[in-house]
Specification:
Blueprint lengths: L1 E10 L3 E8 L6 E8 L2 E12 L3 E10 L2 E2 L3 E3 L9 E9 L2 E5 L5 E5 L6 E9 L1 E8 L1
Antiparallel strand pairs: 1-11, 2-8, 2-12, 3-4, 3-11, 4-5, 5-6, 5-7, 8-9, 9-10
Length: about 130
């Protein structure tokens, strides 16, 4: 599955709510926020069979096609086959990602962006709802 949106107007304080089902045989999926595919302020990438950490949440940024340093959260509350809601927020100098079970992941706004114009949801995930509010 891949959903790619361009010319979006997601600003500081806005929320992106993504609902869907993680596929039963999922390896990974990703939610990307930025200005285009080569400039991502947030790459949120749950992995279910990572070679290093097993089930892990990976966050990163990409500038001019070059990845930054990964931030890895080994407590991954997401499970294959689960029906989930993820809420992503640009909150000034950090991105906040609200996960099921009350877990929150924060990732620094390395590029210092105050607006997002590009959103992509891709991977082993069946999207059922997508809302900017």
């Amino acid at each position: 599955m891949e959903l790619e949106l361009k010319n979006v107007d997601l600003r500081m304080g806005d929320q992106l709510k993504v609902k869907g089902v993680i596929l039963h045989d999922a390896d990974r999926f990703q939610i990307d926020l930025g200005s285009d595919a080569d400039d991502l302020a947030l790459h949120f990438n749950p992995r279910f069979h990572d070679d290093i950490d097993g089930a892990v949440l990976v966050c990163n940024s990409k500038t001019a096609g070059c990845w930054g340093d990964e931030q890895r959260e080994v407590h991954n509350p997401l499970t294959r086959g689960a029906d989930i809601k993820i809420v992503l927020k640009l909150a000034g100098d950090v991105f906040e990602v609200d996960l099921p079970g009350g877990q929150e992941v924060q990732f620094p706004n390395r590029a210092g962006v105050d607006a997002i114009s590009y959103i992509r949801v891709k991977g082993d995930f069946k999207l059922t709802s997508f809302k900017i509010c």
